[in-house]
Amino acid sequence: MDKIIEKKKWTRGKILAIAGGFCLLVFFVWLLFLRDNRSRLYVEYNQLTIATVEKGKFQEFIPVDGIVFPRNTVYIDAVQGGIVEEVFVEDGAMLKRGDPILRLANANMELSYMDQETRMYDAINNLANTSISIEQLKYVRQKEVTQLNYDIDRLKKDFDRKEQFFKDKLISAKEYEDAKRDFEYSIRQLEITLNLRKLDSISGVSQSRQISSSMERMYNNLALLRKNLDNMTIKSPVDGKLSSFMVEIGQTKSVGEHLGQIDMMDGVKLRANIDERYISRVFAGQEAECELGGKSYLLEISKIYTNVTSGSFQVDLLFKDEEPEGIKRGQTIQIKVRFSSATDALIVRRGGFFQETGGNWIYVLNSDETFAVKRPIRIGRQNTMHYELLEGLDAGEKVIVSSYDNYNAREKLIFRK
After folding, report:
1. Are 333 and 65 in contact (CB under 8 A)?
2. Domain contains 27
3. How many domains does the chain have?
4. Most buried in the list 173, 197, 214, 387, measured by CB within 10 Å?
């Protein structure tokens, strides 16, 4: 007799089917919700430059090259044109004020000087003669007054006697009237002569002033002529070192032509070119520093040349305390021009990543340094060594600072070690 066998509810096939479906469901959930969908790229770890975010002192500055110049320079130009007749010193010579450097010859100027000198001396002699004539006229008037006073005294006495004689009827009326007329005439003559002397005196003072002024101008002109002639011999205006002096005997030099310069030995200055982007942030008195021979020196900007040429402008810098020894004119020294004082900040080393990201994001390593992920950041100030970090990173985190040119802004970098 056959026995009825009950069909099992959970068969092996059914269990496998359910298990397979569950696994498929888990796979789809992982695929849609749990999987890391970020774009990734495998890179060689040993080809990366890794830097650690740190807390430290940050100072904003820019590096520029400064060229050493003498602090004060006096240029030597040809005041008068001519042919170089004699050269007394060579380039690089140490000179004292008044030392002759070279002599020029100019025959036309010398002839013109002699002609002008002759005419001026003639004019001076004429003025001197006029001045003598004025003095002589003064004495002539004085002599006339003296003579008239003498005549008046004599005629008065004669008139007084004849007046008495006339009263005593000892002389005729004609003799009396003649004596009276001569006496009164002499008095009127004296009045006229005194008035003339007064006018001559006033006129003489005015003329004397004009003559003195004219003669002074002429003597000044003569002195200027002599000075122009003396300028044919070029002399050192100050103590210092002669430089940029390239003159040969027989050369022709024009008026105003540059002949050389005297570098005064009272110190040096540095002249630097700064990018025009910083022109609004540079000011007189701004500090800078440089290092020479392992020692740091402090400088300050003393002068700003605001003319922009080829995208940059120039500044002069002076050493504040002491000048380094042994530096020479024309030497190039790297300078750091400060834009702020040193302050506490979160900093990271400079690197090529900035050119790709503009400082807006960076790759941050995980704790075991097996991969790095892209993270947004915000960078503030910068100098040649570091960037100042404002947002997005913490001290101690490690980041990739080398170039990102080949990463195509992937979200995740996986390291191959």
Report:
1. yes
2. no
3. 4
4. 387
Average pLDDT of the chain, as a whole number: 85
DSSP-derived 3-state class of residue 283: coil
322 with 351, same domain: the answer is no
Please tell me the distance from the alpha carbon of residue 113 to that of residue 119, in angstroms, as a whole number: 10
- In a domain, residue 29? The reply is no
* Cα-Cα-Cα-Cα dihedral sign, residues 125, 128, 133, 139: negative
Tokens 């570091």 — which residue?
386
The predicted structure's pLDDT at residue 172: 84
| Exposure b/e, 365-398, CB count within 10 A at least 16 = b | beeeeebbbbeebebebbbeebbbbeebbeeebb
Q: Which of 229, 245, 278 is the last residue of a domain?
A: 229
**CATH code of the domain covering residue 93:** 2.40.50.100
Phi first, then psi, for residue 347 (nearest 5°) are -130, 155
Contacts of 352 (CB under 8 A, 6+ apart): 401, 402, 403, 404, 405
Six-digit token string for 252: 């022709």
Which residue is associated with the tokens 């003598």? 132
Confidence band of 362 (pLDDT split at 50, 70, 90)? very high
Whether residue 87 lies inside any domain: the answer is yes
Beta bridge partners, 43, equal 415
Query: Which residues constitute the domain of residue 121?
Result: 107-229
Domain final position from 338, 355, 376: 338
Give one DSSP letter per residue of 160-213, joined into a string.
Answer: HHHHHHHHTT-S-HHHHHHHHHHHHHHHHHHHHHHHHHHHHHHHHHHHHHHHHH
Q: Is the dihedral of CA 18, 22, 23, 27 positive or negative?
A: positive
With 0-12 CB in 10 A as exposed, 13-18 as middle and 19+ as buried, what is 301?
buried
Q: Are 165 and 86 found together in one domain? A: no
Tokens representing residue 234 in the block: 């070029």
Q: Are residues 135 and 276 in the same domain?
A: no
Claim: this prediction has a pTM higher than 0.70 = no
Task: Map tokens 């540079």 to a residue.
Answer: 282
Q: What is the DSSP letter of 9?
A: S
pLDDT of residue 266: 85
pLDDT confidence of residue 34: 47
